[in-house]
Amino acid sequence: MSFWEEFLSKLSFGTLITLQLLTVTIPLSVILGILIGILRVYGGRIGKTLANLYVYIFRGFPLLVTLMIMFFGLADIGIRLTPYWAAALAIIICSSAYQSEYVKMSILSIDEGQSLAAKSLGMKRSTEIFYIILPQALRVALPGIGNEIIYMILYSSLAYIVGVNEIFSAAISVNSIWFKPTEVFLVTALIYLAMTTMASYGLKKLEHRLWIPGFETRRKS
Amino acid sequence: MSGETVLRVKDLYKRYGDRIVLKGVSFEIRKAEVKAIMGPSGTGKTTLLKCIDMLVKPDSGRIWLEDLELTDPRIDIGEARKKIGFVFQEFNLFHHLTAIKNVMIGLTKVKKLPKDEARTIAERALLKVHIERELWDKYPAQLSGGQKQRVAIARALAMEPMIMLYDEPTSALDPQLTGEVLEVIKELAEDGMTSLIVTHEVGFASEIADEIMIMMDGKIIERGDPRKVIHNPRREETRRFFSKILKIGDESR
Ligand SMILES: Nc1ncnc2c1ncn2[C@@H]1O[C@H](COP(=O)(O)OP(=O)(O)OP(=O)(O)O)[C@@H](O)[C@H]1O
Ligand SMILES: [Mg+2]
Questions:
Q1: Residues of chain A in Cβ contact (below 8 Å) with chain B
Q2: Which of A104, B3, B17, B103 is most solvent-facing, going by the fewest CB within 10 Å?
Q3: Is the CB of B81 less than 8 angstroms away from the CB of A119?
Q4: What pairing do the DSSP bridges indicate for beta strands B211-216 and B34-38?
């Protein structure tokens, strides 16, 4: 096999794995981030404390360390995850902690009057949260969540540390055989660039669709 | 005017920290009556209205809406609030909903009416406040202040409240937009809507109110027939208050 043959075949396989990893981690981390964000505002004493603790811990750990804990640490106490699931779990946990920050801030940014008006109509707390506050707050949070999704694409490459055969690990392994770092890492970088470009485009489209006059949902970048 | 009592407020007290904002407020409103509350800034007018809708919990005193005691901690406060329409100084329309959806959401999510029925009621309420069809699908940010406040009135009205509370409904509006809002409030009052209105519009209050209550420093210091309270008050403070706001009013004309 020539260099390019081997490189491209390994790389396309790696891309597939990375995409697979992202299709699991992106939606789950967004959903979890939203839930934790809600808990951090409306969770009552216990819910707030637990959610804040979660964020405090996993925003304070480097993703790399969380990854090691999920793979080696959990194995030590008898929970054996495949490299793929250890990586997915670490990314979901880390990213949802960040996502929840955007969600919490956006909920708190909704002015008090919205809540008063909802209450004055006789809405229950849950109705107020789901039909009045969240539809507005999530629009405000969308640019931040979007940025976090872009980061997630990039730091999915850390999964190679625990042996997931994603793009970056494919690049490393091809390079160690052929030693052509310029070609290998340039092409690898372009693939990440293509993925983030596509994600940006999708997010723009989504922001456009959810746009409401009077709402600033443009991503600040 | 003598009908059944719709709202009864008895000896209401409210403090924020060490500041007592309401110091024993009592009054009643009968069916179809219109009462105006006037008084300087920071004297507890907004706090009073919020207490009536239980958006703020009074420290002591009692409030009844007909036979239902709102200050009874065992009642379902959501049930009670459905029957009280609240119009805010800053409109507080739901930013993410169109005009008609703003009016419909209380009907579908609180009264649990089917969508088409809610829509019919919402359309009727919007027409009642002179919001025409071409504005129904606009978002709040696309409406003028006067239009926003009229949609907010329609939103409260659609719930078929027993009483409407207005908290300075025109204070956030440009002077040329206050007229259309006051007109709507007046029409509703003339149709028999029981109303409690906090306002600084002296002419408007004297025109539509059955009684004006002057609030100062957490107390109602004077109440009575509008013309008498405005032009021939018993209290020196009331006289000073009106001479001050009438002068400001003249300058802004
Ligand atoms: N949530 C709060 N916490 C602490 N103090 C408050 C709160 N709400 C109101 N106050 C204080 O209570 C007093 C009465 O406020 P309120 O808003 O009822 O006055 P107001 O008569 O409506 O005044 P304005 O004409 O300016 O609207 C003010 O001094 C205000 O600063
Ligand atoms: Mg006020």
A1: 113-114, 116-124, 127, 131-132, 135-136, 139, 212-215
A2: B17
A3: yes
A4: parallel
